[in-house]
Amino acid sequence: MTAIAKEKPSRRRTSLSTSSIPTALIYEMWQGRPIYYKGYQDVLAGKKTIEEIMSCSDLQGVLVYLLGLYIGNNVNRKKYLISTNESGLHLATNDNLGSDLAIFEKEKVGKLKGKYFDVPPKIAIEVDIKADVADFEGRLDGYLIQKSQKLIEFGVEKVIWIITSAQKVYVIDRNDPTWYIINWSENITVLDDCVLNIKQLLANEEIDF
Questions:
Q1: For residue 40, is it within any domain?
Q2: CATH code at position 87
Q3: Count of domains in the chain?
Q4: Alpha-carbon gap, residue 16 to 21, rounded angstroms
Q5: How do 80-92 and 158-163 pair as beta strands?
Q6: Alpha carbons 154 and 147: distance in angstroms, whole number
């Protein structure tokens, strides 16, 4: 188990005028600052389409599905609401994040409105990073840590971030000052009695990768 240090927010350096970049390439908004999809510069250069950079990999797609299926079968669905497919989280004006899988307390959500969620999920789970991180100090880790901090400040109790290429999981708990990186072969308590082992989850489904 490896501890990770929290980073102070860094100022993003911008090489292109944001007014010249289509809004369809915006992945998230951080207090009015656009965070673009990874590969957006290839779209601007005509090398890729918007659809190509917005799509996830085969492993990402399968893993998000399996996570939703497993968690849905191991938590009280009368109490909790599970949302997938890059659900939008509205933190404040011009401050919107996406989440691969979010677990909400139903009583806090109330009636669905066909808009972004404006209440924090209890648990947020991310699989890999879809944002362009070139201008973040620390690149991947910098973006991951800063976004996780934003989620925690919004009211999320725990962020579980899975990095498929390294087979590692970041576990970030609002009630624990130490944030950890663990192998995905280790057990992770999601909430209540729901314990997740990602390596075992994939093995049970006979998923080769």
A1: no
A2: 3.90.1570.10
A3: 1
A4: 8
A5: unpaired
A6: 11
Domain extent at residue 156:
56-204
**8 inside domain:** no
Residue 86 lies in a domain: yes
45 within domain boundaries? no
Do the Cβ atoms of 206 and 180 come closer than 8 Å? no
- What would the two tokens of residue 168 be? 């590692």
Give the pair of three-digit tokens for residue 142. Answer: 């910098």
The two tokens of residue 72 are 């849905």
Q: What is the pTM of this model?
A: 0.90
Strand pairing partners for 95?
92
Digit-coded pLDDT (tens) for 12-54: 444 455 668 999 999 999 999 999 999 999 999 999 999 999 9
Question: 87: which residues sit within 8 A by CB, 6+ positions away?
Answer: 98, 99, 102, 116, 117
CA nearest neighbour of 134 among 14, 50, 8, 9: 14
The β-bridge relationship of strands 123-127 and 33-36 is unpaired
